[in-house]
Design goal:
The chain has 5 helices and 8 strands, in the order H-H-H-E-E-H-H-E-E-E-E-E-E. With about 280 residues, it is of the alpha+beta class.
Amino acid sequence: MSLTAHIPSHRKPRQSASKTALRAGVAGGVLSTIAVAGAAGPAQAEPVTQTIEMPTITSGFSTTVAASAQATQQVALDLETQANEDAAAENAAKKAKKAKAEAVRKAEAKKKAEAAAKKKAEAAERASRTAERTTLSASPGSSSASGSSASPSSSPSYSSSNATGSAAAVVAFAKAQVGDAYVPGGTGPNSWDCSGLVQAAFRSVNIDLPRVSQSQSTAGTQVSLSNLQPGDILYWGSAGSAYHVAIYIGGGQFVGAQNSNTGTVQRSLDYDRPTGAVRVL
């Protein structure tokens, strides 16, 4: 290569002054044209602004809304309460109806049971009277007179003399209670147990006896069953530990509150032979 050969330069060539001036003139002309066009064009309209006045929520309106909501809630609660009360009332009515039906059923059952017990007691009473009449009729020396109650010749004789004084009053009191009910612990005036009847009979003549049969069986002088007098106290069991008492009324008869089936009855001594007797009068 020749030492004088041209080496290309990497630098950009400088533009000539004429080109630069031309470019500047063109740019200035364009800008001038834009400026003139902007000045000559119509004026830009200002935006229209309209103010809308919104209603103001006052404190009174807020209170009204709150009250309305509260009233609505209260109505809902009232309706719920009423529904609960109606349901409870309906349930209570059903239970009451069921309880009434059950009570009626029990009352009818009790009535039937009482009627059956009464019928059974009456049948036992008739059977007992029939047996007594048969025994007395078959006994030697029995009397045919109505209401008589003669004892067999082998039995001890009983005093049939009319009672007088306090004894008569005790006998009258006892006989007046025949037909009353027997109730354990009963002391009258319409229901008795055995010792309650005896105590009340003697109280009618101002004599106070112990309340129970055990004590009443030793309240007086022990007497033989063959030497009884109206007003004597009969007892069953041993003296001091008797389990039943009654009042001898004469003619071989006694009055006593026997049991819940028979109540207070008048019976022959042969119906249920006592163990012993005491005399208080």
